[in-house]
Design brief:
alpha/beta, 7-stranded mixed sheet, 21 strands, disordered N terminus, 509 residues, 6-stranded parallel sheet
């Protein structure tokens, strides 16, 4: 583990250096970026004001490699910063994450103005690498081949006062032919249950009331420590933590979705009635080519068991359209599963070659126009189902955890937004009583759209919470600081739930 002394750097006490982190890809990257921010602030940096757009003293790219055009996007952004860096002596640029782990020295060759390149296994080295690059006046490229420190042991600047990610494992033991993550994140490594629960208890003591257990293949937890029921035991243990109101997890793999996990979800009151379980394809032939270790019947059986145990569960998924060799018959099988499963939402992806994956070299790549047509049919079907499922919520009374930054139009509509237990997004009329992110309100649903619900009547109840108190303390502390110095927590809301935006999943679980 990198020590605090190794992470420390010399900074101008009169004018702390500012930083900006740009995060791409999955929730694991979001989790890592919180740690990168914590490391930089421990080293004396301060977060740049919102909208700095490259004007910070240090700009960090936390990259993703699961899309074919990921490198083009990175180099385009680096090119945009090159003239800014040339005009600002002392500005530094760092590139980390999956693309850095994959491309290594290539980044500095293509963009020689980059100061630091670091990988997925050594994020704790960022501050010392920045300082070394400054002193030696040359780029520092350091890529570790194995994990140096579990990310959750590093300092953190969390994205929310009331909700938090808790990583329970890193890496993945699967060999899906479309996914490059195992090559970049390594084999699965589990945290000890006691360490996880200690972190959860510490977060709750700070005011957090919702946690999301995070892993590349979250319900495979236990394979590294030799306990096949470790994940269900962890869920039940979270249920015993006083003050923890909501527990979620992402993303599970159908192969590892066992009956004990379903029972733990149903019998643990603070585990939310929500499941995000990637399907990828409904065709057994395509699933075999993807090296997915389940078939359509197995997947639908899990859905059936979850619904029997948790009738109100909202189930979401990931689907890839146009995998090499996919025929019209194969695609029809995917549509069949969508109709049978009746997902609340689905992340739908057009197959994209990931350089370095077996699928990228497969024959029978599906023509782009065929993929596009199938994609549009799938989206239309899922939109119809999502709307029908949301209309079933009309007239229901829901307890919402008030969110921050989730309703883009809240300011103009005089509404606030919150998440229901099943993670549906609900916009509700702003009450006369002061309501803070993290507080809980009770509302009645009056309108349903495919991707959100409305509660246009009066709020039926407001419950002020310790999480709301934590949000208030954070904002009071931030307002007391000089402009540009943002110690504590940023204003972004809870960890991005699934589903939240069109690109919040990488489609590789």
């Amino acid at each position: 583990m990198t020590s605090s002394s190794d992470r420390s750097i010399a900074v101008d006490a009169q004018k702390p250096r500012s930083y900006e982190i740009r995060t791409y890809g999955c929730q694991m990257n979001v989790h890592d970026s919180e740690r990168l921010a914590g490391l930089l602030e421990e080293a004396g940096y301060v977060r740049a004001p919102e909208g700095s757009d490259g004007d910070a003293d240090v700009v960090v790219f936390n990259t993703c490699a699961v899309r074919e055009n990921a490198d083009n996007r990175l180099y385009g952004n680096l090119g945009h910063l090159a003239p800014k860096k040339a005009k600002r002596p002392g500005m530094q640029i760092a590139v980390g994450g999956c693309l850095a782990q994959k491309d290594r020295d290539t980044i500095v060759k293509k963009a020689p103005w980059v100061d630091v390149v670091f990988g997925t296994h050594n994020i704790g080295k960022l501050p010392v690498l920045l300082e070394r690059a400054r002193v030696q006046k040359e780029a520092q490229v350091e890529i570790a081949e194995s994990l140096e420190a579990f990310p959750s042991t590093l300092p953190t600047r969390r994205e929310s006062a009331y909700a938090a990610w808790v990583s329970i494992s890193v890496g993945c033991n699967n060999t899906c032919t479309f996914c490059i993550v195992p090559a970049l994140r390594g084999k699965e490594k589990d945290r000890r249950p006691g360490d996880i629960l200690a972190e959860v208890e510490a977060l709750v003591a700070e005011g957090v009331s919702e946690i999301t257990l995070l892993g590349q293949n979250v319900n495979a937890y236990g394979s590294d420590i030799g306990d096949r029921e470790a994940f269900s035991k962890l869920l039940r243990a979270c249920g015993k933590i006083e003050g923890l109101e909501r527990v979620r997890f992402t993303s599970p793999h159908p192969r590892d979705f066992t009956d004990d996990v379903i029972a733990a979800m149903a019998e643990t009151p603070n585990v939310m009635p929500q499941l995000h379980m990637p399907l990828q394809s409904g065709s057994d032939k395509v699933l075999r080519a993807m090296r997915r270790s389940y078939r359509q019947e197995r997947y639908l059986k899990i859905i059936e068991k979850v619904r029997a145990a948790i009738p109100d569960a909202a189930i979401t998924t990931d689907i890839i359209v146009g995998f090499p060799g996919e025929t019209e018959e194969d695609f029809e099988q995917t549509l069949h599963v969508v109709r049978e499963a009746r997902f609340a939402q689905a992340f739908t992806f057009q197959y994209s070659k990931r350089p370095g994956t077996p699928a990228a070299e497969m024959e029978d790549q599906v023509p782009k126009e065929v993929v596009q047509e199938r994609y549009e049919r799938l989206v239309a079907l899922q939109e119809e189902i999502s709307w029908e499922e949301n209309r079933k919520q009309l007239g229901r009374r829901l307890e919402l955890m008030v969110a921050e930054g989730e309703g883009r139009k809240d300011g103009t509509t005089r509404r606030l937004s919150g998440r229901a237990p099943d993670n549906r997004l609900v916009h509700f009329t702003k009450p006369d009583q002061a309501v803070r992110p993290g507080d809980v309100v009770t509302v009645e649903v009056t309108y349903a759209a495919p991707h959100h619900l409305l509660a246009e009547g009066p709020v039926l109840d407001v419950r002020r919470t310790r999480a709301g108190d934590a949000w208030e303390r954070r904002n009071t502390a931030e307002q007391a600081k000089p402009t540009g110095v943002m110690l504590g927590l940023p204003k972004v809301g809870a960890p991005a739930p699934l589903p939240a935006t069109a690109n919040s999943g990488c489609g590789c679980d």
